[in-house]
Amino acid sequence: LLYCPRYHACELMNQGILALVTSTGCAAASALQSLTDAMHIPHLFIQRNGDGAPRTACQLNPSPEGESYTLAARPPVRINDVLLTLVSELHWQKFIIFYESDYDIRGLQTFMDQSSRMGLDVSLQRVDRNVSRVFTDLFNTMRTEELNRYRDTLRRAVLLMSPRGAQVFIHQAVETNLASKDSHWVYANE
C-alpha cells in the first residue's frame, strides 16, 4: 500500500503497486479513478478540500464495466461537537450560522437537533457566491424594525465558509453596517 500525489500515479503503476491511497481534489480523484479502474488497482480516496473551503461530496464517474476500484471516504467531522462546545462556553442563546451554497449542511443536522433540545435559537442562512446580493436582498425585503431585529441576531454568528468567502462576507457586513462593534463572529472550517 502506497500513498502518492497524483502526478506520480502512472510511474508508480509501472512499478507494480498493489493499491493507491490519495487525498486530492475532486477533479484529480476522478482522473485517478479512471486510471485505477482501467488498471484494476484498488484506490482509496480520502475526500478533502485543499483550499480551506468547506468539504463537499465528490461525484466520481461510474466505471464503464461496472467494476469500480475506487472507494471514496469522508473522514468523520467533529464540527457538531466543536460548535456545541463553543456556543455552550460562550453562553450563546440566539445566533445565526452562515454557510456557503456548496457546503454540505447535512452534517449539521445533529448539531441542530442538539441545540434545539437545549433551547437554543439557531438560524441557518445560505450565502450565495455573490455575497453582496445577500445584503442587498436583506435591505430590499425587510422593513426597518425587522432589519433591527436581524442586526441583533447578527451580533452572534458562525461562518462556515472558505477563508476567501468569509473575508468577503465580513467586509460586506461591515460596509453595510450590519456588523457592529459588539458583534461576535466565529469563523469555523473543517
Largest sheet: 4 strands, parallel
What fraction strand? 15-25%
Shape: elongated
Side-by-side strand order of the widest sheet: 1-2-3-4
- Model regions low in confidence, pLDDT < 50 over at least 5 residues: 1-6
Structural class, by secondary structure, is: alpha/beta
**Topology pattern, helix = H, strand = E:** EHEHEEHEHEHHEHE
The chain-level mean pLDDT equals: 76
In whole angstroms, the N-to-C terminal distance is 27 Å
Q: Helical region count? A: 7
Helix content: 40-55%
Task: Give structural attributes.
four-stranded parallel β-sheet; 190 residues; disordered N terminus; alpha/beta
Summarize the structure.
Helices cover 40% and strands 19% of the residues. Strands 1-2-3-4 form a 4-stranded parallel β-sheet.
In words, what does this structure look like?
By secondary structure, the chain is an alpha/beta fold. It has helices at residues 9-14, 26-39, 79-90, 109-117, 131-141, 144-154, 163-175; strands at 2-3, 20-22, 43-46, 70-73, 94-100, 121-127, 156-160, 184-188. The strands form two sheets. Strands 1-2-3-4 form a four-stranded parallel sheet. A four-stranded parallel sheet has the order 6-5-7-8, with helices on both faces. Helix 2 (26-39) links the parallel strand 2 and strand 3. The protein is elongated. The two termini are 27 Å apart. The model is unreliable at 1-6 (pLDDT under 50).
